[in-house]
Amino acid sequence: xxxxxxxxxxxxxxxxxxxxxxxxxxxxxxxxxxxxxxxxxxxxxxxxxxxxxxxxxxxxxxxxxxxxxxxxxxxxxxxxxxxxxxxxxxxxxxxxxxxxxxxxxxxxxxxxxxxxxxxxxxxxxxxxxxxxxxxxxxxxxxxxxxxxxxxxxxxxxxxxxxxxxxxxxxxxxxxxxxxxxxxxxxxxxxxxxxxxxxxxxxxxxxxxxxxxxxxxxxxxxxxxxxxxxxx
Length: 231
Description:
The protein is mainly α.
C-alpha cells in the first residue's frame, strides 16, 4: 500500500475514532445523567410524606371526635338521667353539653376536610409512585442498551486502533508530523485529494508544480487550504 493510500486510510480511521469517542462520551454522560430519576424519586418521597401526614391528621381528628362524642354522651346521661338535681350543676351540665355539641360539629367539618385532603394526597402518592416505577424501568432499559452499545463501540475502537497502527507504519514520520500539526488547523481533516486539478476540500485549482508532486507521490500541500494533498 503506497503511503498516500495509507495516509487516507489513517485519516478515515482517525475521523471514525473521533465520532466513536464522541458517542462513548455521550453514552457516559447519559449514564451519569440521573436528574429525571432523582426528580421522580423526590416527588414520590414528598407525596408519600404528604399522604402519611394526611392520614395521621385524619386519624387525629377521628380520635378527637370519638373522644368528644363519648364525653358528650356521658354529660347528657348525667344531665337527663335524674341523678343530678342541683340547679347549679344542671346548668353547668347543660352549658357543657352545648359546648361539646358545637365542638362535635366543628370536628365533623374538620373530619370531612381531612378525608378530602387524605384522598387527594393518596391520589398524588399513587400517581407519583406509578411514575417513579415507570421511570425506574425506563432507566434500567436505557442503561442496559447503553452498556451494550458501549461494548460494541469499544470493540470497534480497539479494531480501529490496530488498523491505524498498521496504516501509520506505512507513512513516513515527516508526513505524520505534518498530519498532526495540521489536524487542529484544518477542522480535523488535514488530508485532501487532488481531483483533476482541484483540491477536494477547498475547491482551489492547484498549481502545476504541486500537481506534479502529488502525482509523483511526493509530499505536497494544497496551494489554497494548505492541507496535505494526495492523488
